[in-house]
Amino acid sequence: MRVGLVCAHAAAPPSGDGTVVGTYQHIARVAAELAGRGHDVRVYTRRDDPEATETDIVDGYRVERAPVGPVAPIPTADLVLYVAAFGEWLADRWSADWAPEVVHGHYWIGGLAAAHAVRETDIPMVQTFHSIGMEQLRHLGAQYDGPGTRIPLERALTRAVDIAVAQCNDEVDELTRMGLQRTSVAMVPTGVDTDRFHPDGEAAPREQRPRILSVGGLGRGHGQEDLIRAMRLVGDAELVIAGGPPTDRLANHAEARRLRELADRVGVGEQVHLVGAVPHEQMATWYRSADVVACTPHYSSAGRVSLEAMACGVPVVGYAMGGIADAVVDEVTGKLVPPGDVRTLGMTLRRLLADNAGRFAYGHAAVDRVRCSYTWERTASALERLYERVVGRRRPVEAA
Fold first, then answer.
1. What residue stretches are annotated with the Glycosyl transferase family domain (predicted)?
2. Which of 55, 99, 217, 257 is deepest in the core (most CB within 10 A)?
């Protein structure tokens, strides 16, 4: 099958936060898995690096970069200006000797460009949003900083797709609230690289006292503030926060300073350590060094951090929402607490750190759950079946 994957953000990993895997790595792994299954896969993105070539062959699939907009990373809000041009570039490419049998848009910008390109064809379109503006706004409130055009454009995009792919059950509900029929929404969770994330291997150096690990970008809405406040109830343990800018830039990072000041103010400054950005290939060592991984973002669609921690055999304490609620089985692979309930979060962490046997049992169950339900092979297989379904049921559009 000929598969075209479209994402304006797929040209490079997100800058400034080495712990964020995000859309780029998701698409790269899906493309490689599909190519390994014998499909002809091409990834289309915007050229944002002057050193990048127009085309590349990577892990069995082809990457093509559109000369649209400035050859530099630009904010998402500015990318909206180039959606039509990106779509026209795609349509031109697909009018030549190679055209996809199915197009899969990623994130709302990539989806809009893909929809623009296929609007006068009979090529079916699948869309993964990765995050949904209305859902983010509901969870983050005043902390939501997405462009004003995003929510109405996402709603319009739902009317242009054959199937929308949700990464968690909360996202399924959100897409149906946006007007999609439930039969037009498929649940396909993200995968985990179990060759990289597993219980055996090196662990990052640590203190003798128990370690709680938090992974994610530094910013309001990522939940580190809740964890710092909860540490007053945890007792003698350290909280390691991995994420944000590189270590040498933490001192000048406003959110890092604010979190340190908060830790000092609530009396846990000596227990909280910010280590900055960690390359993704090194994250497994940090997961293995932890007794518990805490996942407390105010919004999470994929629950990637919780899955990677579980793959490394570490129990997770997380907010019962989004992808975290789907990944963590309460009282089996970890503990779920109500979002924003700092007191329950602190007491849950305290009890779990004191329960060696419980953590051991949760860790073993967590590894089994990931290997059974969250491998990239399973994700690619589900997408393959989905593509076959939409290609099989789409009929050529009659000329107006």
1. 205-357
2. 217
